Batch of 4 targets.
Target 1
Amino acid sequence: MIINKMIKLILNSILISALMFSKGFASEDFLRWVKNFETKAIESGISEKVVKEIMSKAKFLPKVIEYDRYQPEFYEDTFTYIKKRTSNRKIKEGIKLYKKEKSVIEVVEKDFNVEKELLLALMGIETNYGKYLGKMDIISSLATLSFDERRSEFFTEELLILLRLVDKKIIDRNILYGSWAGAFGNFQFMPRTIRNYAIDYNKNKTIELKNIEDSFASAANYLKSIGWKKNQPCFFRVELKNNIPKKFLNSSARNIKNKKKVNFLKKYIKNYDNLDIKENLVAAIIIPDKDIIPGAETLSPAYIIFENYEKILNWNRSLRFALAVCTLKENFENEI
Ligand SMILES: [Ca+2]
C-alpha cells in the first residue's frame, strides 16, 4: 500500500515537472488564474491598489508543487522523528534564547497561562528558534498552491486572508517571506491563524511574527484560545496488552476515535502501574507508525494521549509532531 503510494507520488511529481517545464504552460494558465483571483479579491472588498500591486509580483513556483507532493517527514518513524527534534543541542539553544528573553517570555507565560516550556518547544521545532523562517515569497507560494488543483480552495482562502491583513495594514507587506506552504514567522502561522489569533503585544500597531514579543504572545494566545490547559499531561508512552480491541488503536491524526476514561483503558496497558495518571482523565491510544512505516508493528510504539495532546494536533495535524513538541517541552521542564 505505502510503497504503491510512494511510487504514485514520485510518478506524479515527474509528470507535474514535465508539464510545468513544457513551454508556456505555467505562464499562460497561471496569469489567467491571477487575473481571475484579482477580480475575486477586489469583489470581496480588498482594495484594488493592494490587490494589483501584490499580485503583479506573484510568480508560479514549480518547487512548491514538488514540496507539496513529497513530504519526507511522513516517512520517518516516530523515534527518529522525535530524536531529531529534541536533541541536546535543541534544548541548549532553547535555554539560551530563554535566558536572553526571560523577562518577555515570563510575562507572556503569566498573561496567557501557557507554559513557557511549551512555547519554547514549539518555536524550537517550527523554526529552530527563528533560524529557519523560510525564504520563500509566500504570496507566490500561496498563489502557486491556489492555482494547483489539489488544495486550491484552502489556499485561495489563505491568500485572500493574507491580502486582507496587508490591506488593513496589520501585516507589513515587505516582510512576507516564509515556508513553501505559506507559513510565516517564528511559529509558522498560516494567514488564517494570524487573522484568528495573532496579536500586537508590544502595541506598535503592527503584528510582527518574527519579533519575540508579538510572536510569543500570539502563540500563547492561540494555545489558550484553542483550550490548552496548563499543568495537564500531554501523553505517556505505553506498552499495550495483546487483548486491546483494534477500535481503540488510532493511527490517523485526522480524527482521534474511541476516547475513554483512563480508568477504562488502563486494563490494556502493561506498564500502567509505573505511570502517574489521574484515572478520571479522558484519553485515547495512538500507534503513530502503523499507517506510515511499511512493516511497522501494530502495538508498538504506542502512547496514551490526553486533551492537551489534541490541542497540539490542532496546531499541526501530525501525530509525531505533537509527540515531539510535548517531549521537548518536558525536557525544558527538567532544565529550566
Ligand atoms: Ca507589534
Target 2
Amino acid sequence: MPSLTRTEAHRRSELLTVTSMAVDLDLDQGEQTFGSRSRISFDCAEPGATTFVDVLPVELTAVVLNGRALDAAALVDGRVELADLEATNVLEVEATMAYSRDGQGLHRAVDPADGEHYVYGHLFLDAAPRVFACFDQPDLKAPYAVTVAAPEGWLVLGNGAATKVSPGRWELAQTRPLATYFVTVCAGPYASVLDEHDGIPLGIHARASLRTHLEREAGQMLEVTRASFDYYHSLFGIRYPFGEYHQVFVPEFNAGAMENPGCVTFRDTMVFRGAAARDEVLARTNTIAHEMAHMWFGDLVTMQWWDDLWLNESFAEYMAHRTCVAATEFTDAWVDSTVARKAWGYAAERTPSTHPVAGSAAPDAQAALQDFDGISYAKGAATLRQLIAHIGDDAFIAGVGDYLRRHSYGNGTLADFMGFMERASGQSLTDWSAAWLLTAGVDVISVDRADGAVERTVPARFPADRPHTMDVAGFTGGAEVFRVPVTITADRTVVEALRDAPAADLVVPNAADLTWATVTLDPESVAAVPTALATVPDVQARAVVWIALVDGVCLGTVDPRVLVRTFGHAWPVEDNDSVLSRTSLALLGRIIPTFLPPAEQGWAEGVVAACAEQVLAAAPPGSTRALVAARTVARASSDETLLRAWAAAKDRPAGLEEDSDFGWIAVRNLAARGLVDEDFVEGRRSDDDTLQGRLNALMARAAMPSADAKAWAWTELTDNRSRSNYELNALAQGFWLADDLAVVRPYAERYFTDVPAMTEWVGEDAMARVATLAYPGRVVEEATVERSEAALGGGGLSAGVRRSMVDAESQLREALRSRAIFG
Ligand SMILES: [Zn+2]
C-alpha cells in the first residue's frame, strides 16, 4: 500500500478545507468486521480540481460525491479519486471494515478470563482509513460527530462525551477540530471509575476482569490527573479544551499510550494486577502526565507534517518529567529519565539509523514512523532542557504559550516554534537550532584532571558545534568534594575552578544530567568506580555513572567485567528504585548474555543473583526494594528448589504470595534452563487463564531449550497468522532465552527469511517490535552479522523491519567488538 507522500499531503491541504466529519460505526456485526459510514463536508479552493480520499475496507459499498454515485471499483491502493470538485462538497462513503489483531486500526481482543470482547481504535500514524474514509493527514483537521452501534451491555467511549440514546445506540458529542490520527472509539463491557476535577469529567476504564485492580489503582491515577491539569493550566494559561477526559486501559496495545483528545488509550498492563515497584508507578505517572501534555502540544496544536513529530514527543517527554517533579511525589523523575529514557536515546545515537531530532525528510508517512524513537523522545527532551538553560525558563514558557495560542486547533512547524522562542528570548537561535536540532549525533564529554579541562569530542560523521551547559562533580569517601557549573562552547575548555578543585576518587561530568552527551570517565575514575560508586551520595550523579558505564561497555571503552564488579558493590546499597530496576535488567537482558563470553555468563549472573538475595534479605518485607530484589532473584537465580517453590506460590517473599506475574518469572527461568516441561507450564496457565497468563505461558514454552520446543515456537511465531501482536512478542522474547546456542543457531539463519515474510499479515507498528525481539542478537557470531548484512543488502524489506534489523545488527556488532577487545 503506498504511503501518503509529503508532496501529496501538501497539495491536498492547499486544495481542501474539511469543515466537518460525521462517522457512524456499526460494531454489532460479529467478530470479524464492522460497518463504517462517513460523511465528509469540505471546501475546495479550486473548483473543478481532482483529489482523492483514503479508505481501506474489506468491501466498499458506496461512494457518493455531491449526490453523484461513484464507481466503488475505482478503489485502488486505498484511494478513491474525487474529480470535478465543487467549491463546497459532501462525500459519503459506506464500507465494511475488518477488525485488526495487530493493534492498528480498530483492534478487537477477547479476554480469556470471561470471554468478553473489547474494541479500541488506534489510528496513529496512518491507520484511520482502516476505520473510516477520510483525508488522512495531520493538517486537515475537522470537528467530528461520531455515532456507534454496539452490542447491548457495552460501554462506548470516544473523543466527545458519549450518550446512550437507545439500547445499543450511542452518540458522541461533536468535538473540536481533530486530526484524523487521534480519533478513537473504545467499546466493550469496560469497567469504570468516574470522577470530576475543576469542571472536567474524568473517567478511568479497563477490562471488566481487571475491575478490582482498576478500583485499587484509580485513586493514584486520578490524583496525578488532577495535579497535572492544575499544573498545565497554570503553566500554559490555556484551559484543557476537549471536554471530558477519559483514560482507557486497553488490551494488546502496541505503544505505551496514545494521546487521543478526551480519550487517551494506555496499555492495560499499567493497571497493575500484582505488586508494583515504585519505579513502575513513576513510569505510569509519567505516561499519564505525558499524554496530558499532548492535549496542548500535539492535539490543540498539531505538527503540520510528520517531520515535526519530535515537536509533539520531545515536548511531552520533557513536560511529563517536569510535571512529575513539580506536581507529584516523584521528585526523582529525572533520575528515572537518565536510566530509563536517556539510555534508550544514547543507544539510538550509536546505531547507523540515528537522525537529527528535527528536520528529517519524512518523504512519506511511513518514513516518519521510523524516526519515532529514543531520539524523538529522550534526546528531544534533553535538547529542550539545554534550550531552557540557554534562553531561561521564563522565555521558554512565554514562547510556548504564544505558540499554543497562535496555532490553537491548527498546525505548527519547527520554524514557527523556534520563531516564538526567539521572540520570547530576544536572541537568535539559528546556530543553536542547527547544532542541536538539525544535526544528528552525540558529543563525548570527558574531564582531563591534570589541566582541569572539559573535553568535547564531536562525532566525525556529524560535525556540529553544540554548546553544553552542565556541571562537573567530584566525590571522595562518601562525600561530594566539589561541583563546578560549566558551559562549554569548544572542544577543550580549561575551567579554573576544576583545575583548583580538591582531589576526588570519582569525577563525574554532567553530574546533574542536564545535557545530552556520552560521558567518558577518566582512567582514575574507571579504576575507582567499582568500589567508589556505592559511596556517591547524589543519586542523579550515580545514575549518570551507571549509564556512562553501560555506554562505555557498548562503545568498547569499558570492560563489561568492570560493570559487573561495580554492580556487585554498588547495587546492594543503591536506594533508588529506578536505578535498581534498570541496571539489573540491563545486565541480565543484554550485557551478560551478549558482551560476556558464554563461559563467564554463569559467574556474572551469580553476582547479580547474590546481590539480589542480599537486598531481599535486608529490605523491609513488602517494600518496593524487596520487590525489585525478589524479581531479580527469580530472573537470575539457578536455585531450582527456590524457583520451583516460587513458581508453585510457596515460600514467596511478603506481598508476592498471590502475584501471578512474579510466579511467571520463576517459571520462565525454570523453562529456559530446561528444568520443567510443557505440562508444567500448562498447569500454571490453567491456574492463571488470563491474557497475561496466556502470554507468559507462551513465553515460557518458547524459552524451553529442546529442539522440539524451538521448532514449535518458531512455527507459532512465523507461520500462525491468527496470533495477536502481543502473542508474537511473547514468543519472540522467550525464544532466545535458552543458553544452548546449538539449538537456536539454525534459527539465526531462518530469521532473515521467515520474519520479513510476516509483513504480509502483520502491520508495521507491531512488525517493527517483533522484528527487534525475534532478532538473533544472542547468537554473537560473525556469521550472524554476515547474514544480517546480506538480508539488508538484498532489498524487499519493509521500512519497519529494515530499521529493526539495522539497529539490532548494530547492537550485535557492539557485543562482538567488545569480546574482541576484552575477550
Ligand atoms: Zn507522546
Target 3
Amino acid sequence: MTYTSTTITQRYHDAIVDWQKKNFPELDILMKHWDDYFKGVPPFQLLAKVGEIKSDTVEVGQYQGRKRFEHAREMVGNAFFSARDIVRAQCSTELGSIQQHRLTLDRAVSDRGKFAVLRIMAEELRHAYQMFWVLDQDPTWKKPGLGDVAKQTIEELLSMELGGHVLDAFNIDFNDFLDNVTYATVIDLVGKYQLEMQQVFSYAPMARSMGPMLQEEAFHLGSGRKLLKEIGQMAARGEGDYSIQDVQRAMNLWYPRGLEMFGNEHGGETAVTFGFKDKTNGTAQSEYIEEVRGVVRNVNVGIVQELLPGRSREEAHAVIDAIERGGDTKHGIKPEDLLLLPDTKFFRKRGPEEFVFGPYDVRGQLLSEHGKPLSPDGYLAYLSTVLPARFIGSREYNKYVDQMREYYSSR
Ligand SMILES: [Fe+2]
Ligand SMILES: [Fe+2]
C-alpha cells in the first residue's frame, strides 16, 4: 500500500496527544515492547496516511463521472453535513473504542492478547488522527452562520466520554477480556465494511484515508478471531476463565449493536446518492451477517475438534451441520456446547419497525405469554438470562430499558 505521511496543525496534534495521555497512557508500554511482539512491523507513529485513489472521478450516485470533491465547500446542501456526520461518527468510534478497551486491558488472557489490544488501541488513535486530518487539511469546512465546523467537530470529539459517543456500540463498558475479543471480532468487522464502502467517497480526502486504515483494521479482526477461537477451545477443554455460555452471552451483547452500526437495513440510499458509499445499509449488512456466520462456524470447528480429537475440519463441519439441523445431541456434543449466531431480530433497538424492541429470542422466535407477545418486563427478564450478568443494570442497559419503555408508551 503506497501512501504519504503527514501531520495536522500543531494545536490539534498537541490536543490529541493530551487526549492520549489521559485516555491511553499505556501507549508507552506498547512502544517499549513493540519489537518483542511485532518485530518486522514498522513501529506505531501518530500520523495521517494519505493513500491513492482508484480514480479522480466520483464512482457512484448523482455526481458519478464528475471530478471528486477536493474541498468541503463543493458539497452542497445536505451533502456537506452528511459528510461531516460520517467523519464525526467514524472518529467517535475510534476514540470510544480506546476508552472501552482500556477498561479491561489488565484482564487479558495472555501477554500476547494484551499487546494485540494495545496495538489495536494505538491504531484506533491513528484513525481518530486521520479523521482530524480530513477536517483539518481543508479550510473550507465552514458554513456561513455556523462558523468553523471542523474546529467545532474536533473539539466535540475530544470531549466525548463513554456514554456520550455517537453510536451505541461505543458506549457499552467492557467488563472482561471477552468483551475486548468479541468486540474486535464483530464490531471492528463493521468498521471494515464501512471503510471498504467509503473507498469510493466523493470527497477525495476521505477516500484517500481508507486504504491505510483498512490495512490496519485487518490486524484487529485477525486478532479478535484468533483469540475468540482460542477462548472457545479453552472453554471446550474446561480451561480458562470463560465457558461457552460466557462467549455466547458476549456475542449476544455485541452482535446486535454491530448490526445496527449499518443504519436501518431498509435505508442508506442517501449515502449512495451523495457518492459516499457504494452499498446500501441492507446490502452491506447482509454481507456482514454471512461473514460473522463464518467466524462463528470457525470457532465451532475448533470446539468440535477439541471435543472429538482427531476429526478433520470437514468431519467437524459435518458434525456441526447435523447438530444445527436436528437441534439435538450428536456424538455427545449438545447444541449449547456450540456458539450460536443470534438472529437479526434479537435485542434490537434500532432498525425496521417490524421487530425493533420486539420480544424475540436469540433464535428469532417471538416470545409469547398467554397467547400474546411477551410484555417489556417479561422480555427484560428473558434478556437477563442471555446477556452478560454485568451488563444488566449498567448505564447502557438502563438506556435500553428507558428507550424501550418510551417506545411502547408512544405507540
Ligand atoms: Fe479504526
Ligand atoms: Fe479497529
Target 4
Amino acid sequence: MAELLLGQVLSYAGDPFAEGLGAARHLTHGAVLIEDGRIRAVGPADTLRAAHPQARVTDYGRHLISAGFVDAHAHYPQTAIIASWGKRLIDWLNLYTFPEEMRFADPDYAALIAARYFDLTLANGTTSVCSYCTIHPASVDAFFAAAARRGQRVWAGKTCMDRNAPEGLRDSAASAYDDSKRLLTKWHGAGRASYVITPRFSPTSTPEQLSAMGALWAEHPDCLMQTHLSEQTDEIAWVRSLYPSTRDYLDTYEAHGLLGKGGLYGHAIWLEEREKARLAEVDDSLIHGPTSNTFIGSGLFDMGGLKAAGHRVGLATDTGGGSSFSMLRTMAAAYEVGQLRGRALHPAELWWLATQGSAQSLHAADRIGNIAPGMEADLVVIDLSSTPAIAQASARAEDIWQALFPTIMMGDDRATHAVWVAGQKVV
Ligand SMILES: [Zn+2]
C-alpha cells in the first residue's frame, strides 16, 4: 500500500558548499509518497493528497521529514567502550579498543553488540552506516545479519591487522585475503549489504598485508576500501618509522594498491600538499569524524579548504573513538571544529553532510541520503521542539534554518520522532 507522509520536507537539488542555499529544497506543507520501499513523489501536501487519494496518510504536522542520516565511518564493535576516559590514539587502541575487540571471537557477543548498535543508531535517526568490524569473520556476519533483519543499507568489512596488535587480534596477509574474499563473496550485494575491504591502518598491517588487500581491491573494484589516514601527529611519525621508503602516509597506501576512487580515508587531518593533490586526483572520499577528533585530541579537519578543493567529504560518528551515536551531535561538533578553523558551517551544509554528503562519499548518492523520486525510502522525522530548551529557541525562528539549528546544536535521540527504513516504519 502507498504511504503518504505529511510534514515539513527538506531535500537537496545540489551541494550547498558549491551552490549555496539554493541547493536546498524546503516545503513547509510538504508530502512524501512511498511505495514498494521507494520514494515515488515529493511535493506540496495538497497536490500529492489529491493525486493519491488511495494512499495511507501519516500527518507529522510541523515535524521535519528528511532523508535518514548516513554515518560514513564507525566501529560497531566499540559500542560498549564509547566514552572511555582519556588517552591519545595509540593508547586508546591498546587500553580500550583491542581488549574489547578481542571479545568478538565469540559470535554470540558479536550478535549482542550488533543488535545493540543498530538499536542505538536507529533511535538517533541513522538509517545507513559504514562500519569496521573486528578481525573475526563472525563479527562481519553478525553485523550484516543484524542490518538485514532491519532492512538497512549498510557497508562493512573485516578489519585486517597482522602486526602491532595483541595475540588473538592478528591475522596474516594470506588469511586476511582469504577471509575477506570469502566474506565479500557472501555479503557483497546480498540485499542492501555492501562489503568494504578494510585494512585498519598502515601501522597494524605489514607491507605484505597491504599488498594483499590491494590485490583483492583490484579484483573487486566495485567494492569500497576503507582505512585511516593522518589522524594524529604521533601516529604519522610512527608510520614514517615503519615505512621509511615512502614519501608520506598516503604513499603507504598508494604503494600497495590502496589508493583510488572508492577509497574512504578516515580523519585526514594532517595532510601534506602532495597528499591532498593526489587524493583529489583519484576522486577520493575523506571522512570527517569531529567528535572523535576532539575527544581523542587529534586536530581540526579543514572542511572549508577540502570542500573548496573538490574532495568528496562524508560525516561520521567514528563510534567509539567518537563520543556519540548521534549524527545531530556530530553535526554540532563539525560546526564547532569549523568555528575553530574560521569557517562557520551553515545548517544547510551540516545537514547535507550528514545525509547527501555521506551518501556521496559512499558512492550511493543515487540511492540514499536524499528525498527524490526513485530513491530508497530511508527517512527520519525530526521533532524541532524536542526539549524545552530547543523549543523556546526554535519558537523564535524566522526560517527553517533558524528552526533547525537549535536541534543540530542541542538535539539528541529525543528529536527522533520516527524512522522509516525501505518504506517501513521502524521507530
Ligand atoms: Zn575509525
